[in-house]
């Protein structure tokens, strides 16, 4: 039996995550997940890849917005309202995509600029913005400010297998996944094509290629070499290190920790798994 054991969202891209017991599945991702992004003065996004200390900004959901605290700096908390009168609406760059975003006021921007150390702006993705997923792998799907796909899933057994190969085990938060499940064999998610969590249907799109963010301690912002060093020895394909599975949804609804996962059909990526 496969059971959903974790649900995680990351409202502001590359800042701290939030663990939930229940979440609404929307087409572009879990509710509130990566609906906000920070951009530089050229309106280009940036992440922990560039500024690992972004991990130290803790995010929580309040009734009418997000509350931000810094884990180590003595600075005033920041409240970000869900509903606001945006200062401007402009194009922003997220990887190869150019999309329309709503900008917050200078006071909010100043908090981020001083905290992170780069002049920047907070941007929210309006419902009218439809950022399309790479159509090489799936058609007519949209995504938030996530790197490429609306959802990601990793089996706890996969992390356990990885940790068994390293001197120091790592927590799941290194991989910033939305879903974690227990049960099954290591890397079982590699072979999925279509499955359900509770009553919500998902499609596995492609394995997730991992970057330097996985080497950043999410509690201290310290950056070392693992897990990429170990993963590269047994999870490398086409010169990319794979860990976790990217997803899109085929239906919407609510998912809950404790929901059962039901697997429908094997993935086209069986051949990839056999190469690992």
For the sheet with most strands, the description reads: 7 strands, mixed, barrel
**Which structural class do the helices and strands define?**
mainly beta
Percent in strands: 35-45%
Widest sheet, order of strands: 1-15-14-19-17-16-21
What does this molecule look like?
- By secondary structure, the chain is mainly β.
- It has helices at residues 106-117, 156-164, 228-234, 270-275, and strands at residues 2-9, 18-20, 22-26, 29-30, 36-39, 57-61, 65-70, 78-81, 88-94, 97-103, 121-124, 131-132, 142-143, 151-155, 179-182, 192-197, 200-209, 236-237, 240-249, 253-256, 260-266.
- The strands form five sheets. It has a seven-stranded mixed beta barrel with strand order 1-15-14-19-17-16-21. Strands 5-11-10-9 form a four-stranded antiparallel β-sheet. A three-stranded antiparallel β-sheet has the order 4-3-20, with no helix packed on it.
- The relative contact order is 0.19.
- The model has no long low-confidence stretch (mean pLDDT 95).
Give the helix/strand layout:
Layout: E1 2-9, E2 18-20, E3 22-26, E4 29-30, E5 36-39, E6 57-61, E7 65-70, E8 78-81, E9 88-94, E10 97-103, H1 106-117, E11 121-124, E12 131-132, E13 142-143, E14 151-155, H2 156-164, E15 179-182, E16 192-197, E17 200-209, H3 228-234, E18 236-237, E19 240-249, E20 253-256, E21 260-266, H4 270-275
Question: In a few lines, what is going on in this structure?
Answer:
With 276 residues, the protein is mainly β. The chain is 12% helix and 39% strand.
Please give a handful of descriptors for the protein shown.
mainly beta; 39% strand; 276 residues; four-stranded antiparallel sheet
